[in-house]
Amino acid sequence: MNKKLKIILYILLALIIIIAGISLWYLMDYSPASADANSLINGTSEVSVSKINNGLFLDGPGNDSAVIFYPGAKIEYTAYLPLLINLSADGVDCFLVEMPFNLAFFGTNSADEIINNASYNYSNWYIGGHSLGGVMASRYAHNHFDKIKGVILLAAYPADSLENGSVLSIYGSNDKSLNKESYDDAKKYMPSNFTEYVIKGGNHAQFASYGNQTGDGVATISAYQQENETIKDILLYINGS
């Protein structure tokens, strides 16, 4: 092997190592859940939390409806426990999915394992998600409206048609992470009668409990207020659908 070819091979090898290192760093980097969120991992007096193969099952007093929830990109899934454990306490059981590398892109069909489990006997299945999790949840629903009664999008928009289904969309008025132009353009994929709620003073990050998010707007309401408003809107949607 001549010297010139060796140099080229060494350069290519170095580039491969650098790219692999950057990719690994990106996949392993994420926003951790707050201590308050993680303190709910064992449930409450009203809601039991149990580990399942691909996440957590939040079992409250309800028996009829359940929400399968996909977390936002690079966010530790337990950051959504405060929101979902209170939704479960109000009668809608929840399945919080733990995504590979904290990216719903790698687990779009995670809902299959839950819905196809014969031990879960719900009459109404809903799927939802936050940010990228909402995009991937809508993609799953696009192909499975025979199983899914409705889609719940938190600061998210669909990339595939949901015209044949039912959709609830919620976002905060101070959300600067949500691309509003893309959101408005994606309304062409929504059913004509989709439900939209804008939480005044809410932002992107306060749908979960993981701290501030770079590029997001400043919320002028508390995380507790945004959580309660979100739960109220979801319950109105589910009870009316």
UniProtKB/TrEMBL annotation:
Keyword Zinc-finger: no
Parts of the chain that traverse the membrane: 7-28
SUPFAM superfamilies from the UniProt entry: alpha/beta-Hydrolases
Domain Alpha/beta hydrolase fold-5: 66-227
Pfam families the record matches: Abhydrolase_5
Keywords: Hydrolase, Membrane, Transmembrane, Transmembrane helix
GO MF, one example: hydrolase activity
Protein name in the entry: Hydrolase alpha/beta fold family
Biological source species: Methanobrevibacter ruminantium (strain ATCC 35063 / DSM 1093 / JCM 13430 / OCM 146 / M1)
